[in-house]
């Protein structure tokens, strides 16, 4: 029997997380003794004479605390504990086994079954109260943790919803960005311009393109906007309008003459006009590098401006290579700057490759960057008899085979290939 204690006279309930207590014992006398003390302490007490009856109570209204005898006919306390834990994974209750067992292996068996604590019969009122207080502290912490986990889970669900919405927006943004490059390969007479655009994310800050105001005159370019992501992509959309292949009246690279036809502006003038527009736009911190070329298909004369972009690579028909340009200043950094222009004469079978630094700054397995020497090596692995589009796809595939698996593609990769085949 429970010995007398001054705590038995307390009329108020214990504060905390435990309100409802289930007492399970096949002895009516033992149940009455436990129930009397628990009710004096202010608990809502229910009782069961067997493990099976206790399981039915737990199914209908799970308690906060369970006091269960170990030795009972039918389902014993250990089996009841195991069944309760399997059923009530979401509603944790503190489980105390009442037993005369004290061997370490038996205690371990009870803990493995899911019991939280043990009380040895006959049960002391003071010890019972102390064990319930300890259980209440543990249960309170467990429920606080569960509530925090619920809040975290709800927050993650909300973040997932926001992410999914952003992801859908980015997918749509990518479609819009892809519309800036409607054709990846186009023939101009017997010559061809081919384009490659591979963002490292949903959207990117690289832009390639071409336009033709009339027979035997074409312009093409490769642009790399500073930074990554949405801001850079918005800038490429703006630049796509400035160099539109459809609306010549908006294209900075063209000017109307005699209200009859459009002519190509000189590359250095195009760079200057673009620089003036970006500098004039307050609040814009982005800048971009660019290689922009125009070519007369009759003579093979190609004029080019390089504004901080990687040096264009001239691939001669005889297999020799030459990097063109002197560097230059990116567009949108310095106001009122002039840009130098270079000129080269192409022979039939020559090709000119404009590319972004996503190629040369790609990180390899050894941690080093590809650099221009690595680019030349990649090009040497491509079949020169391929079409321009096949050549660029092969070049990109060769790059992916040597990329660092740890870092992957860290920057957008883009290229423009011009193949000259004479007038």
Structural description of this entry:
The chain is of the alpha+beta class and 423 residues long. The protein is built from 10 helices and 18 strands. The chain folds into 2 domains: 6-148, Rossmann fold (3-Layer(aba) Sandwich), CATH 3.40.50; 180-419, Phosphatase 2c, domain 1. The strands form 4 sheets. It has a 6-stranded antiparallel beta sheet. Strands 2-1-3-4-5 form a 5-stranded parallel beta sheet, with helices on both faces. Strand 8 and strand 9 form a beta hairpin. It is rod-shaped, with a radius of gyration of 39 Å. The N and C termini lie far apart (112 Å). 34% of the residues are buried. Mean pLDDT is 88; it is low at 1-16. Keywords: Hydrolase, Phosphoprotein. The modification 4-aspartylphosphate is found at residue 69. InterPro entries: Bact_Sigma-Reg, CheY-like_superfamily, PPM-type-like_dom_sf, PPM-type_phosphatase-like_dom, Sig_transdc_resp-reg_receiver.
Describe the biggest sheet?
6 strands, antiparallel
Helix count, per DSSP?
A: 10
> Which fold name corresponds to the CATH topology of the largest domain?
Phosphatase 2c, domain 1
Oligomer: single chain
Q: What topology, given as strand order, has the largest sheet?
A: 6-7-18-17-14-15
Tell me the total number of β-strands.
18
Shape: rod-shaped
Proportion of residues in helical segments: 25-40%
CATH hierarchy class name of the largest domain:
Alpha Beta
Binned strand content = 15-25%
Quickly count the domains: 2
Keywords: Hydrolase, Phosphoprotein
Modified residues (4-aspartylphosphate): 69
Pfam family, one: SpoIIE
InterPro entries: Bact_Sigma-Reg, CheY-like_superfamily, PPM-type-like_dom_sf, PPM-type_phosphatase-like_dom, Sig_transdc_resp-reg_receiver
